[in-house]
Amino acid sequence: MAPHTEQLTRPAVRLRGLTRSFEGRTVLDDIDLDLPAGQFTALLGHSGSGKSTLLRAVAGIDHGVAGSGTLTAPERVSVVFQDSRLLPWRRILPNVLLGLDGRDAGERGRAALAEVGLAGRERAWPNELSGGEAQRAALARSLVREPELLLADEPFGALDALTRIKMHALLRQLWERHRPSVLLVTHDVDEAVALADRVLVLERGRIGLDLTIEREAGAHAAYRTRLLRALGVTEAVA
Ligand SMILES: Nc1ncnc2c1ncn2[C@@H]1O[C@H](COP(=O)(O)OP(=O)(O)OP(=O)(O)O)[C@@H](O)[C@H]1O
Fold it and tell me: How many domains in the chain?
């Protein structure tokens, strides 16, 4: 996977006037959004605010949903979900390689597995992996396709807190190495601030806050407070 040094000027994704409704109820209301190439963006919002609907629209997998708008997105898009979606009847390497061909596919699959810390587990069955390992395999399956855009819908939502922290470090490391544009859907404010360079807050069908995250020591708490306020959340302990 060739790292590129592209400037953050050419948008990888351009959405214009995106509207989506279910049974007459508008979930996304005339959204315009540019995701610059190589940027790591997190999308925060309350449950039901339309985060997954927006991600599916960007992925082009919301056929049959009522709506309008235009989308420009790269050709190579990978999607990771909360559940690894590994096929239980295939070993890990064939799962990672699913639908790929070419003489070097096996080698690339092994390299991707090594990169996510699963070297030596190529012949394991999905049910032999822990939840965290299964998500590592899902990341390898995405990476081996060399995506220009990586869409992740709460990929760590089902993991325990410690595994989640390790996965955060892994995802950030993979992003730094390969620089795909990333859109990460999460409802975890700390996850958004820890990983992303830009955090969007979705509310009432619109992007209510568009926050650039500067990686400075000690800045995390201030971003956290600002995002919680935007979400209308009060913490029990100040
Ligand atoms: N296929 C569908 N048919 C009907 N309603 C839907 C459909 N998909 C989503 N919705 C509705 O659209 C709204 C937004 O759903 P969406 O899954 O995008 O929210 P979300 O922010 O991702 O929520 P969560 O954080 O709980 O996953 C919800 O009210 C949901 O019930």
Answer: 2
- What is the CATH classification number for the domain harbouring 127? 1.20.1580.10
Q: Is the pLDDT of residue 104 over 80?
A: yes
Ligand 1 centroid vs 136 CA: distance in angstroms? 26
Computed from CA positions of residues 142, 85, 188, 112, in that sequence, does the dihedral angle turn out positive or negative? negative
Instruction: List, for residues 209-238, the tens digit of each pLDDT value.
Output: 999 999 888 899 999 999 999 999 987 765
119 and 173, same domain (yes or no): no
Residue with tokens 């859109």: 183
The response to whether residue 49 sits with its C-beta less than 6 Å from ligand 1 reads yes
Which ligand 1 atom is at minimum distance from the Cα of 187? 25
From edge to edge, which strands make up the β-sheet containing 66-72? 25-36, 11-22, 66-72
This model of the complex carries an ipTM of 0.96
Domain extent, residue 224, equals 11-76+147-230
pLDDT confidence of residue 66: 75
Q: What percent of the chain has pLDDT over 90?
A: 82
The answer to whether the beta carbons of residues 4 and 12 sit under 8 Å apart is no
Give CA–CA dist 57/80, Å, rounded: 15
**Ligand 1 pocket, mutate which of 18, 19, 22 (most atoms under 8 A from CB):** 22
Tell me the β-bridge partners of 31: 18
pLDDT in tens, 181-215: 999 999 899 999 999 999 999 999 999 999 999 98
